[in-house]
Design goal:
The chain has 12 helices and 3 strands, in the order ααααβαααααββααα. With 378 residues, the protein is an all-alpha fold. The protein has a domain of 212 residues: Penicillin binding protein transpeptidase fold, CATH 1.10.3810. It has a 3-stranded mixed beta sheet, with helices on one face. Strand 2 and strand 3 form a beta hairpin. The longest helix has 33 residues. The protein is elongated. The relative contact order is 0.09.
């Protein structure tokens, strides 16, 4: 019988007698010409794995045998990494059009979710059971159009002012061009004639040079309408102040000069307004710049209204006295001058008591001012 050989077995020493694990330390690199490093130690290195980090109460391990091991608990545990429960919304959040509705899919990524896999869409109703009874939000209401703000209102005001300034500039440029043209060419009519012609009133006018108009009519018109015609520059400040002092109801009257009446009858509308007065001033100044006094008075005597549709000294002389304008007497010239402010009420050919009295007053002024209108007479 052969006795089996006994192989000696090496028994590892207890854990308490084992050498402690070596500590890894960074060793600086040695220069090339230095002595080579000794061979690495042959003692074993023990690496201890870190303990798992518990992120929240929900991430805590579930003990075996607990109720969490029931069917479906594993799926709920795995979804904790991808979904998180939102706090119950208040009443205002429930009525929001952006609130969650039953049947919608939603994914909420948890901060500690695994980056290795992509979560799939799950039914969010299982995680939001308390909200099942929440009422659904109604349709989104279209907001009412906002009212214009003050900024938009000021924008429209600026645009209106800009377009008004452009219109005034165009009108003034056209007016200046017409004034320069009519300095040498007799105008065919005036705006006042145009308004009456459009209204259906027949117009009677015959252009007559100032040389063929009686000097009595020239002096009578200057004395009656604008006593300082030869001395002012289109606007008479003294007469404006006197008209303001004479006004009783706050509206100045009787301050228009002959040049201003020419500008109004030639280029503006007949109705009274502050806008017309504002446009009348630059047109008056342009007339004084481009026309001499003689031309201004000549145009005025040919476009002035002396009756319904009767314009010009020649037509007025024929209509009221059946004679030419160069044969008018002092009395007749004074009656024509008196009827200028109200040609439809004062009839020079058949003067009433007021017209006759005013005519005698103009004759007296003509005798006291023999040089009236001398700037227009040669």
């Amino acid at each position: 019988m052969v006795t089996p050989a006994v192989v000696p077995t090496k028994v590892a020493p207890p854990a308490a007698e084992m050498a402690p694990p070596a500590t890894l330390q960074a060793v600086p690199a040695a220069p090339r010409d230095a002595t080579p490093l000794p061979p690495p130690s042959t003692r074993p290195v023990v690496v201890t794995a870190p303990a798992p980090i518990q992120r929240s109460v929900e991430d805590a391990p579930i003990p075996a045998g607990s109720a969490a091991t029931a069917p479906g608990a594993e799926q709920a545990r795995r979804t904790r990494g991808f979904f998180h429960r939102l706090p119950e919304p208040d009443e205002a959040a429930k009525s929001s059009p952006f609130a969650h509705r039953p049947g919608e899919k939603a994914v909420h990524f948890h901060a500690g979710a695994s980056a290795a896999g992509v979560p799939t869409l799950e039914d969010a109703d299982a995680l939001r059971a308390p909200r099942q009874g929440a009422p659904e939000a109604g349709p989104i209401q279209t907001p009412a159009p906002a009212t214009p703000t003050s900024g938009r209102l000021w924008t429209w005001i600026r645009l209106g002012v800009r377009y008004a300034a452009i219109a005034v500039a165009v009108w003034f440029a056209t007016t200046v061009a017409a004034i320069v043209l009519f300095r040498f060419v007799d105008p065919p009519g005036s705006m006042l004639m145009l308004f009456q012609r459009v209204g259906g009133t027949p117009i009677t006018q015959r252009w007559t040079p100032i040389e063929r108009i009686s000097p009595n009519l020239v002096r009578a018109v200057v004395v009656s309408e604008d006593g300082r015609f030869c001395s002012h520059w289109g606007i008479d400040p003294e007469e404006i102040l006197a008209a303001i002092q004479r006004a009783r109801d706050g509206v100045p009257r009787g301050a228009s000069t002959i040049t201003m009446q020419v500008a109004k009858n030639m280029f503006l509308w007949p109705s009274k307004s502050y806008v017309r007065k504002a446009l009348e001033v630059p047109a008056t100044l342009a007339l004084e710049v481009f026309w001499p006094k003689r031309r201004i008075l000549e145009v005025y005597l040919n476009i002035a209204e002396w009756g319904p549709g009767v314009f010009g000294a020649e037509a007025a002389s024929q209509h009221h006295f059946r004679k030419s304008a160069d044969k008018l007497s002092r009395r007749e010239a004074a009656l024509l001058a008196v009827s200028l402010p109200a040609p439809l009420q004062r009839v020079a050919g058949r003067p009433g008591a007021l017209t006759a009295r005013l005519g005698r007053l103009i004759e007296s002024r003509m005798s006291n001012s023999p040089s009236a209108g001398s700037c227009a007479l040669r």
